[in-house]
Write a structure and sequence with these properties.
The protein is an alpha+beta fold and 326 residues long. It contains 10 helices and 15 strands. The protein binds acetyl coenzyme *A.
């Protein structure tokens, strides 16, 4: 059985940013409300012509450039996204855009848990010896799907992409993981398809519809996150024989600063070890963890040998944790 290592990271943003102050001219809100309730100051929003493919491909190129590999070396691309350019999948377009000619590519949908689920999925292929070099991308353009008239959700989300390259090696640096789903709570957070009946021919009615906009029960999601995330992190640490204090960095899905603070408090982790960049990006869904990881790697804060606990949580509901050594 091969081990898994993490050999490079990358991220990408679209150019346009939308500050809280700008948003307060769109809906009835204020910088004060958004900052104090969420910790978000601004988010990136994609213009027409900026696609999930272009953003994910840029993050992927940056991640590969951080290694000694070329796109041709990549065996598998897992694209975690809930906002594809094409419902049939966007991973193959990313494959073409970066010239990863040998890679097989597919999308993985698990909302804000997508990146953690993607890393775990990639690890299975590496550990079985099937693939050597795997690119895992988390990318989302939630600005396409927010209701810009709904102040309870539109202030939260932003666009972005992040990626890591994972590689087979002797010593396994994925120290543990846990994944969870609870579909009974699905109604808390949705980007659901709604359809109208379309009569086709005698006795046959089909449907035609669309995905409307993100809907969320914020309080339920908050309660879910602050109870389930510490629990799954504690379990992952326990199975790896580690204590919270052994962790150099905690990278949570960047949903809300209050969630980060509550989880850190439960784990008794000092705030200096909790990665937070939501002030600059908002909640970028599947992209939030790899963007944060990449920013901390590029600024030299995360260094080789550091132990990182990651936890994603969101729609599904889904949640999970992965413990790794960088
Ligand atoms: N600006 C000003 N006022 C607002 C805004 C806004 N943008 N949004 C809501 N309000 C108002 C509400 O209408 C309400 O007013 P009322 O008391 O007159 O009815 C008041 O503010 C309080 O609203 P609450 O919803 O109770 O506010 P709360 O303190 O719960 O904060 C928040 C809302 C920030 C969404 C919080 O519930 C939260 O963080 N939940 C977690 C949500 C989250 O992180 N979701 C994403 C995670 S999963 C994923 O990433 C896909």
């Amino acid at each position: 059985v091969a081990g898994v290592s993490f050999i490079g990271s990358g991220s990408a943003q679209v150019e346009t940013t939308l500050s809280n102050e700008m948003l307060s001219r769109v809906v009835d809100t204020s910088d004060e409300w958004i900052s104090t309730r969420t910790g978000i100051s601004r988010r990136h929003v994609a213009n027409v012509g900026e696609s999930l493919t272009t953003l994910a491909a840029q993050a992927a190129k940056n991640a590969i450039a951080a290694t000694n590999l070329t796109p041709d070396d990549i065996d598998l691309i897992v694209l975690a996204t809930s906002t594809p350019d094409d419902l049939f999948g966007t991973a193959c377009q990313v494959q073409a855009a970066i010239g990863a000619t040998r890679a097989v590519a597919f999308d993985l949908t698990a909302a804000c848990s997508g990146f953690v689920f993607g890393v775990v999925t990639a690890a299975q292929f590496i550990r079985t010896g099937t693939y050597q070099n795997v690119l895992v991308i988390g990318a989302d353009l939630l600005s396409r799907w927010v209701d810009w008239e709904d102040r309870t959700t539109c202030v939260l989300f932003g666009d972005g992409a992040g990626a890591v390259v994972m590689q087979a090696c002797d010593r396994d640096r994925l120290l543990g993981f846990e994944m969870r789903s609870d579909g009974t709570m699905n109604g808390c957070l949705n980007l659901a398809y709604t359809a109208n009946a379309v009569p086709l021919t005698n006795g046959v009615t089909t449907q035609k519809g669309t995905f409307t906009a993100i809907t969320m029960n914020g309080r339920e999601v908050y309660r879910f996150a602050v109870s389930r995330v510490p629990e799954v992190l504690e379990k992952t640490l326990f199975h790896a024989g580690l204590a919270a204090n052994d962790i150099d960095w905690l990278i949570l899905h960047q949903a809300n600063q209050r969630i980060l603070d509550a989880v850190a408090k439960r784990l008794k982790l000092p705030n200096e070890r909790v990665v937070s960049n939501m002030a600059k990006h908002g909640n970028t869904s599947a992209a939030s963890i790899p963007i944060a990881l990449d920013e901390w790697v590029r600024t030299g804060q995360i260094q080789a040998g550091h132990k990182i606990a990651m936890s994603g949580f969101g729609a599904g509901l889904t949640w999970g944790a992965a413990l790794l050594e960088w």
